[in-house]
Amino acid sequence: DAGVIQSPRHEVTEMGQEVTLRCKPISGHDYLFWYRQTMMRGLELLIYFNNNVPIDDSGMPEDRFSAKMPNASFSTLKIQPSEPRDSAVYFCASSSWGKGPFGLNTEAFFGQGTRLTVV
Amino acid sequence: AQRVTQPEKLLSVFKGAPVELKCNYSYSGSPELFWYVQYSRQRLQLLLRHISRESIKGFTADLNKGETSFHLKKPFAQEEDSAMYYCALRGGRRALTFGSGTRLQVQP
To answer: Among A1, A67, B29, B52, which residue's beta carbon has the most beta carbons within 10 A?
Structure first.
């Protein structure tokens, strides 16, 4: 498996434009997470899904942000309209709630992130 | 509520010196604690988890429930250890809560 795949790797857009970030989780994983990384706030959880259903979206900053998971192998994070303060690296991660080593649930595997710049 | 605090944004040490990256947490139940590492231009990856009690790349971390801490330690830092380190907690919800991260800089 190639791991969690995110696209695009870099996105530069003008303020007011719509931005769509994409994520393909690891096959078989039933949890998908979207995080945002900034210098000031570190890694913040935006939203996560279980079996394609949003479980907790309390970290989504405002209505301009929306996320979907239409099937087990694809998720999108959309910002409309985008603003300069949305500039950050957005990470997608996936995990499985099955039993791994030590009888524990497996770790979260991260994608390489999308660096978003809104000018 | 669950919270992770990493008080140092930057920790700079010389090669061969001991390293301790601090992490404190707040959570009312029994959490799972993790350390993730992000090397330059690479994805975030798991370094170690408290329950496995393992040493990875010479790093260890002990969960101290009395002090609610999970500090990351290495007796002799190497230049290749330079990276961003995140402490994370998994409590009642499935998602990880991360600290703000500490950048470790190991100078030659």
So the answer is: A67
